[in-house]
């Protein structure tokens, strides 16, 4: 069997959902599994993260340059966490046959602190199940790096069964710093996992990586799978990633992850914030939302605790479309990155209530002005409501059967700052 067939077969066995932005060399894989075509790679990953929150494994099938578009939610998922496994199949065009460059996707492993697997012909099928298991074990996205050489060659089908685990989201009592500390602790476990993986085969001599020949074979390429001496002589397709990272060490222990309780406080909305009444209604109704970066993220903190997760600026729309079906997002975040997802959601008629906090400013960064959101959302036929009209808001806050956008207008109180709540 060819590599494309083997990988597609393993994906069908291991994953529940598939998303793609096609391109050489992965279009054949996406076609073989019937992957859903998405407006861009970032939205594809955000859909996958939403599936993960709902307990569904998801695969994102993209080419190397498309991985750049995923960078924001990919990096932030490491500290937020996942539940069901999320795997990116990254096709590297090492000869620039259909791409503008020969980007090597493995470097995102170091950037996002995620496991990276580069299968060889003997491990092509098993690598997919291992990637999903690693994603759930370490509660972050996993990357499988493949090349055209691997896909076009003869492969052995996978033999391992589907072992489903359970990832976890960051503990709600962790501060942002505490989330980073907790993620670093898990990264240490990743180093031990890579070195113990049976996918790697050590016989001495030259180490082959991926489809490259060698006496030994490295498959779990990040974190480094062996000591520096063993990896000193490698053959790789693309840049010498494994050789360059052979001396990389796990993060140092920075102590017990910081909690709100240990710090003594957490942040919440300004005392006279016009959107407080909205948060109180959402809390009273028990509506769980996907928060966005900006002031919306504060909805996940006490005293409201209505946020299930928050991945990146503009990510709440797509993540919520596949999980809670309620997104809470600021006007700047929607214009910054969320509008692509909203277009995709409307095109596919996914049930989603997108609640936009419109204050015409960047509330977290100093109140800089924001473009008038409504000028760019006429196609969505949004409903606009002043923040003080609580009766109207109560009538509008319903789980929809189709995409709906609700714009809540309010003006930030001049000179105010976020309040703190004792924990």
Provide a descriptive summary of the structure in words.
It is built from 15 helices and 20 strands. With 423 residues, it is of the alpha/beta class. It folds into 2 domains: 3-244, 3-Layer(aba) Sandwich (Rossmann fold), CATH 3.40.50; 264-422, Thiamin diphosphate (ThDP)-binding fold, Pyr/PP domains (Rossmann fold, 3-Layer(aba) Sandwich), CATH 3.40.50.970. The strands form 5 sheets. A 7-stranded mixed sheet has the order 2-1-3-4-6-5-9, sandwiched between helices. Helix 7 (124-138) links the parallel strand 5 (116-117) and strand 6 (142-147). The chain is globular and about 70 Å long. The relative contact order is 0.11.
Summarize the structure.
The chain is of the alpha/beta class. 33% of the residues lie in helices and 19% in strands.
Topology:
Blueprint: H1 3-14, E1 17-20, H2 27-33, E2 36-37, H3 41-53, E3 58-63, H4 64-67, H5 71-80, E4 86-92, H6 107-112, E5 116-117, H7 124-138, E6 142-147, H8 148-152, H9 176-196, E7 207-209, E8 216-218, E9 220-222, E10 234-235, H10 241-244, H11 260-263, E11 265-270, H12 276-284, E12 289-291, E13 307-309, H13 316-321, E14 326-330, H14 331-348, E15 352-358, E16 361-362, E17 368-369, E18 383-386, H15 390-396, E19 403-409, E20 418-422
Parallel strand pairs: 1-2, 1-3, 3-4, 4-6, 5-6, 7-8, 7-10, 12-13, 12-14, 14-15, 15-19, 18-19
Antiparallel strand pairs: 5-9, 11-20, 16-17
């Amino acid at each position: 069997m060819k590599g494309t067939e083997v990988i597609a077969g393993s994906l069908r066995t291991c994953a529940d959902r598939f998303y793609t932005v096609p391109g050489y060399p992965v279009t054949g894989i996406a076609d073989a599994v019937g992957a859903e075509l998405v407006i861009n790679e970032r939205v594809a990953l955000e859909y996958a993260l939403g599936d993960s929150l709902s307990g569904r494994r998801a695969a994102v099938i993209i080419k190397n340059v498309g991985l750049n578009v995923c960078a924001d939610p990919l990096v932030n998922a490491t500290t937020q966490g996942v539940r069901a496994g999320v795997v990116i199949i990254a096709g590297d065009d090492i000869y620039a046959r259909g791409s503008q460059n020969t980007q090597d996707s493995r470097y995102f492993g170091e950037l996002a602190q995620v496991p990276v697997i580069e299968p060889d012909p003997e491990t092509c099928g098993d690598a997919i199940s291992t990637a999903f298991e690693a994603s759930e074990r370490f509660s972050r996205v996993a990357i499988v790096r493949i090349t055209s050489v691997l896909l076009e060659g003869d492969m052995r089908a996978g033999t391992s069964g589907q072992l489903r685990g359970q990832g976890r989201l960051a503990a709600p009592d962790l501060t942002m710093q505490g989330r980073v500390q907790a993620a670093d602790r898990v990264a240490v476990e990743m180093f031990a996992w890579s070195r113990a993986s049976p996918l790697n085969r050590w016989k001495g001599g030259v180490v082959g990586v991926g489809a490259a020949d060698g006496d030994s074979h490295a498959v779990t390429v990040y974190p480094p799978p062996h000591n520096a001496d063993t990896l000193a002589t490698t053959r790789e397709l693309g840049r010498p990633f494994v050789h360059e990272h052979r001396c990389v060490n796990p993060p140092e222990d920075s102590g017990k992850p910081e909690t709100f309780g240990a710090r003594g406080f957490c942040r919440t909305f300004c005392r006279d914030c016009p959107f407080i009444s909205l948060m109180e209604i959402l809390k009273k109704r028990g509506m769980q939302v996907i928060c966005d970066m900006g002031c919306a993220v504060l909805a996940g903190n006490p005293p409201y605790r209505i946020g299930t997760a928050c991945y990146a600026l503009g990510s709440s729309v797509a993540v919520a479309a596949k999980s809670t079906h309620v997104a809470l997002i600021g006007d700047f975040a929607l214009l910054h990155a969320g509008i692509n997802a909203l277009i995709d959601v409307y095109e596919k008629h996914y049930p989603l209530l997108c609640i936009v906090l419109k204050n015409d400013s960047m509330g977290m960064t100093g109140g800089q002005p924001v473009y008038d959101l409504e000028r760019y959302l006429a196609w969505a036929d949004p409903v606009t409501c002043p923040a003080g009209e609580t009766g109207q808001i109560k009538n509008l806050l319903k789980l929809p059967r189709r995409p709906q956008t609700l714009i809540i207008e309010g003006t930030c109180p001049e000179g105010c700052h976020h309040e703190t709540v004792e924990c």
